[in-house]
Write a structure and sequence with these properties.
Layout (H helix, E strand, L loop, with lengths): L2 H25 L9 H9 L3 H12 L7 H32 L6 H17 L4 H28 L5 H15 L1 H27 L3 H14 L6 H22 L3 H12 L3 H4 L1 H24 L3 H18 L7 H19 L3 H14 L4 H5 L1 H12 L1 E5 L7 H15 L4 E3 L2 H10 L6 E34 L1 H7 L3 H5 L7 E31 L4 E19 L2 E3 L2 E3 L9 H24 L2 H14 L3 H14 L5 H16 L1
Parallel strand pairs: 1-2, 1-3
Antiparallel strand pairs: 3-4, 4-5, 6-7
Length: about 650
């Protein structure tokens, strides 16, 4: 054997010896190995977790089954297995999170399966769980692929946009070469569809172009110049249909076409182009409004003038209302003033709203409309009295419920004192909402439980001299290899492991707060809801007693628990929120109740009463809701319909 080869063997032997020494040091050279968290942490630091896992596996083969020794070894091995599985577990968690939003691709499922196989090496007890997880993912993807395939077969030629989306989904789920082929097919079909739409546009076949480009938009709204070409199509179609409606003397249809087109992106770019014909339509409706006004058909007159105003506003035409509309607005002004003098703010609001629709910059709108709206809101809003609850934390409950109500339903609630509320409820004859929330605390207690427990830990309490494992390894080397390696010391300081008992005291505080409440309709002096609500909050902490045994020191740790007042504050806050939610649920329906009453009055021909109820619904509705404008239009039609 050459000298170089001997040196190489010596280095390899030394490396094996050092690795083995690390393992032997970890187990403390005991006849029956004992492993601690510190051993595992050290192995992790030295990147030797796999080696330690396999060493414990070998140790388990030597111990008697069912013994404490076996249980201790398995516990440590389980901890190591969990650490070794962490990178693959992170990948699985990421894939499962993605799967929550839809099936995984076949390629992702392969990743999932590989990760599961790797985890099984370190956590064999999870085999069935991992197999079930992979099988479930494969089944979900297979079902989705089958569903996509079935839908593709059932699609008609006219559903090209949907077909393109399904092809792309099929490509994403399939992945690999087959997925690439499907994706290229989808791209080619979309390009062809767009080209057909563009060709149809160039030939002025607008209906065909609209359909084809619409299908492209279903598949990819951001495709190339799609938005621009769709604008051209929309403009061309509008001009064709709008002009035809005018020629055929169908002004109502012409207006609907104008309204729809004015809501598109193409409108702003083509406003000037359609201005002349649209202006003529506005003149038609203004003349119609003037005619209906002379016939005292006020609602029809308003509808015609409204359309005139909308067209002129959309076209951004300068100049004020025409002669007929000006006369109509003056009539509404006079009615507004009469309603105010008669103490009818609801009717006045209706006329102010009509004026604002036709002439938004009218001085009456800025000066008077907010005033009458506030007056109506003051009448329509729900009056709620939330007094202090009787008993412990009652005042705090009352305050927090009030804060919740004003924050959750600011447009529908006014908090008033109980005397004023009951007085108003007794005098009111219009059925407004007067609610009294009252109650008492029936239980407020904190229960404390303590439980002592002890924990046995295997720790290093000392070191002592003993046979150096590295020397034993060196001694077992072939003579030639020993000559190439320095002899380690025969003895070394080895850790001494002992079992120590650490004492703990687990402390649990459980706070309970129960509230009995009732919700009263003050106008009818009727209890509409009554119940007892309870909530609990639990706080846990552990106190650890200090101790010392040799080198091992356990510091004393005091329990950390919130004060009772803090726990009661948390409970009163949660109960207040719940009581507030229950009341707000009723209050959120307030505008709907007014609307129901308004419709009933209209059906009975009682238009003044209907106007009042529509005004209430409008006043308490959410300013951002879609219902608000509907209530406003109903209010305007009601006041003119009577």
């Amino acid at each position: 054997m050459s000298d170089d080869l001997r040196i190489l063997h010596a280095k390899q032997a030394a490396s094996r010896a050092i690795t083995l020494l690390a393992v032997l040091l970890l187990v403390g050279c005991a006849a029956t190995p004992v492993y601690t968290r510190q051993d595992v942490a050290l192995a992790a630091q030295q990147n030797q977790l796999e080696l330690l896992y396999r060493q414990i596996q070998a140790d388990l083969a030597q111990v008697k089954p069912g013994t404490d020794e076996e249980l201790a070894l398995k516990t440590v091995q389980k901890d190591i297995g969990q650490r070794l599985a962490e990178p693959q577990q992170a990948l699985i968690d990421s894939l499962q999170e993605e799967a929550a939003g839809g099936p995984l691709s076949l390629a992702q499922i392969d990743q999932l399966e590989d990760a599961a196989d790797e985890i099984e090496k370190w956590q064999p007890d999870r085999k069935q769980e991992l197999l079930a997880m992979v099988a479930a993912a494969r089944e979900q993807t297979a079902r989705q692929l089958e569903s996509v395939s079935s839908e593709l077969k059932a699609l008609s030629e006219a559903e090209a946009g949907r077909r393109n989306l399904l092809l792309r989904e099929q490509a994403q789920l399939t992945a690999g070469k087959q997925g690439d082929l499907l994706r290229r097919q989808a791209d080619e079909e979309l390009d062809m569809l767009y080209q057909q739409g563009s060709d149809a546009l160039a030939k002025k076949q607008l209906a065909t172009a609209n359909e084809l480009l619409g299908q492209v938009a279903i598949a990819d709204p951001d495709y190339k110049n799609l938005a621009f070409e769709q604008e051209l199509v929309a403009t061309g179609l509008f001009e064709q249909r709008f002009w035809q409606a005018l020629v055929d003397s169908r002004p109502e249809q012409a207006y609907e076409l104008f309204y729809e087109f004015s809501e598109t992106l193409a409108f702003a770019a083509n406003r000037e182009q359609i201005s002349k014909d649209a202006s003529e339509l506005a003149e038609y409706f203004e003349a119609l409004g003037e005619k209906k006004m002379r016939q005292k058909r006020w609602l029809e007159s308003y509808d015609a003038f409204f359309r005139t105003a909308y067209i002129r506003s959309s076209l951004e035409l300068s100049g004020g209302p025409g002669r007929g509309m000006s006369s109509f607005i003056r009539e509404m002004e006079n009615r507004f003033k009469r309603a105010q003098r008669a103490g009818q703010p609801e009717t006045a609001l209706a006329y102010a709203s009509i004026i604002e629709r036709l002439q938004p910059d009218h001085p009456l709108v800025e000066s008077k409309r907010p005033e009458v709206l506030d007056a109506i809101h003051n009448s329509a809003v729900a009056k709620v009295s939330v007094g202090p609850f009787v008993g412990a934390y009652g005042q705090q409950l009352g305050r927090e419920i009030g804060r919740y109500l004003t924050a959750a339903a600011p447009n529908k609630v006014r908090l008033v004192d109980r005397v004023t509320l009951r007085s108003d409820a007794a005098e009111d004859t219009r059925g407004h909402a007067f609610m009294v929330l009252e109650g008492e605390t029936v239980k407020a207690s904190v229960e404390t439980k303590e439980q002592a427990r002890s924990e046995t830990r295997t720790v290093v309490t000392a070191t002592e001299p003993g046979p150096n494992p590295l020397h034993r390894v060196w001694r077992d080397l072939p003579r030639d290899e020993r000559k190439q390696t320095d002899e380690p010391p025969e003895t070394a300081q080895l850790p001494v492991y002992e079992d120590v008992v650490v004492n703990h005291r687990d402390i649990t505080n459980k706070a309970v707060l129960s509230v009995k409440y009732q919700l009263v309709d003050a106008a009818n002096n009727r209890v509409v809801e009554a119940e007892t609500l309870s909530d609990t909050v639990t706080a846990k902490s552990t106190a650890t007693l200090g101790m010392r045994q040799g080198m091992f020191v356990q510091q004393a740790v005091a329990a950390s628990l919130p004060a009772e007042a803090e726990m009661y504050n948390q409970l009163s806050s949660s109960l207040s929120d719940e009581l507030g939610r229950r009341l707000v649920t009723r209050l959120l329906e307030l505008d709907a109740k007014y609307a129901i009453a308004a419709r009933k009055y209209q059906q009975d021909g009682a238009y003044p009463a209907a106007t009042e109820q529509w005004a209430y619904a409008y006043a308490v509705s959410d300013p951002q809701s879609t219902e608000r404008d509907r209530y406003r239009r109903a209010l305007e039609h009601s006041v003119l319909g009577g």
